[in-house]
User: Which sequence fits this backbone?
């Protein structure tokens, strides 16, 4: 590699990296949301063996560094099971699991924020657990959870930057490549930082708008 | 597939050294964060709109850009402007600046939660603004902020694993070296995961104790 | 001398003080009476500089409270006791009382503590110097508040409804101390609902109604039929308070 200056092609490189980052972010967030909510529903139904296992798992994922989790999946699993996985697959698995753990906690707290008396009243009227979940708990829990979920997603966007360490060519990896080639760290890292910043702010703004819409629906419109 | 933890035994000392480095870096960065956080919190609540805006921008930037990007910015950037500091110091500086952004939010909330009557009593007895801040506002705000600052510290311990990417041999960096010597990534990283989880648990216990001790005198006595 | 001249104060569109004139001479005990919202507390808060005036002036021994540099001097000469005590929760009783003397009057710690302990002794809290405010009852906290104000050796003691947050038993213990202070010649400006108490220890009574100073009379004249009671508002007010 020759040391060279910036070229217009670098913009394309950065955008590609951003695309990889965002692609992984959206897919793992979606999977994480689904799995995390599933876990929370599991807890709502108080499934016997699964619930404590899930809680233990989630605590472990929450209280350990994402980087170590990435290493475990990318380097550790192939060693143990004699399989080979790509960096991208490892990233997908790790980030999804990590997001799921945080979503689980938010969902549980959102469900628990709904007074027990409401749920009891609904049950007394003959609604099944599922009906209570669907009509009473879920709408209110969602409105409650949007704020913390938005903050979580903004954080998970930043966390995607770590997949560069196991070789995924995301925005941070492109930053590394450009940095090594042009030897202009201030420009490179400021631009990379700016791109992440703009995405984070956009995400936060979308979350706030969505929250307002949800709350408008849930608000009491009067007689 | 073979799972054998005993191969780690001869390397425990080396890992312990890495853990010590993590602890040192986090302790120093905690002090740095609290100091930065206090200054920024004061700026955020000051009557000067310029100070308020600058401090808001600082917090906004360092909360919405991934830590690894911030770290690379300092690690590769500082030598360009003639500042040559080792990886450890760079890591501590980066952690302090990032931690300071979160700490400032916490301390600011603590400041705003103080009963305004207490500030009035202090002002009216002739105390200067500087003394009111250092003897009344900050001591009270810091006491109530112990728990959320504990969360910042826990986050910092997990984030410190990223320092391994700038060749620092803290806990994660040491573990990577052990993997390269034992060829047992799964065992090493699983143990690493658990060690971090235990570390954060111990920190949260310590925080709870500290909170109780510091606030003991301010809690209402049981009649 | 504490001079309040033609003071105007408004919060937004609401006028709270409208052309109030008042003079307090050293040694006098003056009570301010009036219904809620009449501007009593606001007047005290203007005197100690917590609120800014919209018109008129207030001078404490010729120091103008509207001028920042002079306000510091004015504050050294006045002490305030608050309705809700406002003690520093993270400091001991001793710390609360000695903070301002050490920082503002630059007294050495030993001297400040000795004064503080003497003050605590005089209010019956000599053994509680190392307690924290959270461990004290309301009446005890207010007594500490009084000591804290007195520790600065103020010329004028401002008391803003200092017994309103206390139950009857604690109220009487605090009032006893205030009566003693009055007897000793301390200059005091009271805002209070305790009419009987005001009658017993004040030299003068001032009545505020909707921001205007209706009367400023010696105590005996205030309660006389041809004096204060001649005003309908005052008579109404007193009869309502007496019923409670």
Assistant:
């Amino acid at each position: 590699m020759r040391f060279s200056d910036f070229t217009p092609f670098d913009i394309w490189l950065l955008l590609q990296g951003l695309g990889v980052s965002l692609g992984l972010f959206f897919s793992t967030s979606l999977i994480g949301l689904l799995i995390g909510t599933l876990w929370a529903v599991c807890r709502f139904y108080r499934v016997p063996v699964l619930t404590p296992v899930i809680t233990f798992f989630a605590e472990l994922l929450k209280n350990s560094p994402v980087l170590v989790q990435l290493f475990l999946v990318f380097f550790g699993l192939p060693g143990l099971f004699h399989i080979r996985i790509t960096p991208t697959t490892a990233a997908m698995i790790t980030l999804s699991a990590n997001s799921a753990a945080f979503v689980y906690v938010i969902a549980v707290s959102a469900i628990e924020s709904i007074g027990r008396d409401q749920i009891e009243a609904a049950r007394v009227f003959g609604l099944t657990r599922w009906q209570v979940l669907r009509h009473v708990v879920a709408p209110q829990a969602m409105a409650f959870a949007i704020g913390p979920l938005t903050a979580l997603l903004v954080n998970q966007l930043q966390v995607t930057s770590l997949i560069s360490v196991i070789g995924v060519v995301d925005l941070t990896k492109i930053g590394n490549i450009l940095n090594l080639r042009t030897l202009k760290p201030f420009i490179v890292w400021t631009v990379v930082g700016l791109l992440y910043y703009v995405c984070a702010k956009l995400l936060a703004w979308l979350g706030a708008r969505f929250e307002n819409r949800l709350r408008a629906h849930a608000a009491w419109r009067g007689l | 597939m073979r799972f054998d933890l005993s191969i780690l035994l001869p390397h425990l000392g080396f890992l312990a050294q890495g853990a010590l480095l993590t602890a040192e870096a986090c302790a120093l960065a905690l002090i740095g964060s609290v100091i930065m956080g206090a200054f920024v919190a004061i700026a955020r609540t000051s009557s000067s709109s310029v100070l308020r805006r600058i401090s808001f921008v600082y917090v906004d930037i360092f909360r919405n850009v991934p830590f690894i990007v911030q770290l690379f910015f300092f690690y590769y950037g500082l030598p360009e402007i003639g500042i040559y500091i080792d990886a450890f110091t760079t890591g501590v500086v980066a952690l302090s600046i990032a931690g300071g952004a979160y700490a400032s939010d916490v301390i600011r909330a603590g400041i705003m939660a103080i009963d305004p009557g207490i500030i009035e009593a202090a002002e009216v007895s002739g105390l200067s603004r500087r003394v009111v801040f250092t003897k009344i506002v900050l001591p009270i705000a810091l006491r109530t902020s112990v728990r959320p600052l504990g969360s910042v510290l826990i986050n910092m311990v997990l984030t410190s694993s990223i320092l391994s990417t700038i060749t620092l041999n803290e806990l994660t960096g040491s573990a990577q070296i052990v993997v390269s010597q034992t060829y047992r990534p799964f065992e090493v990283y699983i143990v690493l995961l658990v060690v971090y989880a235990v570390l954060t648990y111990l920190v949260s216990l310590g925080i709870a104790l500290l909170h109780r001790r510091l606030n003991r005198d301010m809690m209402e006595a049981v009649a | 001398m504490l001079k309040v001249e033609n003071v105007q104060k408004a919060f937004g569109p609401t006028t709270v003080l409208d052309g109030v004139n008042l003079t307090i001479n050293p040694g006098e005990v003056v009570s301010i009476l009036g219904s809620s919202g009449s501007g009593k507390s606001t007047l005290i808060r203007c005197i100690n500089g917590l609120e800014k005036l919209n018109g008129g002036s207030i001078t404490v021994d010729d120091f103008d409270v509207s001028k920042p540099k002079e306000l510091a001097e004015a504050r050294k000469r006045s002490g305030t006791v608050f309705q809700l005590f406002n003690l520093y929760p993270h400091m001991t009783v001793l710390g609360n009382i000695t903070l301002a003397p050490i920082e503002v009057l630059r007294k050495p710690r030993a001297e400040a503590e000795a004064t503080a302990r003497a003050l605590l002794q005089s209010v019956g809290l000599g053994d509680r110097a190392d307690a924290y405010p959270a461990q004290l009852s309301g009446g005890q906290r207010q007594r500490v508040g009084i000591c804290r104000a007195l520790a600065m050796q103020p010329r004028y003691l401002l008391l803003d409804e200092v017994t309103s947050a206390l139950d009857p038993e604690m109220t009487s213990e605090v009032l006893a101390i205030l009566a003693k202070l009055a007897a000793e010649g301390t200059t005091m400006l009271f805002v209070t609902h305790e009419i009987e108490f005001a009658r017993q220890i004040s030299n003068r009574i001032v009545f505020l109604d909707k921001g205007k100073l209706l009367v400023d009379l010696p105590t005996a004249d205030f309660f006389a039929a041809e004096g204060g009671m001649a005003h309908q508002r005052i008579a109404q007010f007193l009869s309502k308070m007496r019923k409670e």
Observations:
- The domain at 8-218 of chain A is CATH 1.10.3720.10 (MetI-like fold).
- Chain A touches chain B at residues 59-60, 63-69, 71-72, 75-77, 79-82, 154, 158-162, 164-165, 172, 175-176, 179, 185-186, 189-190, 192-193, 196-197, 200-201, 204 (CB under 8 Å).
- The first helix of chain A runs from residue 8 to 44.
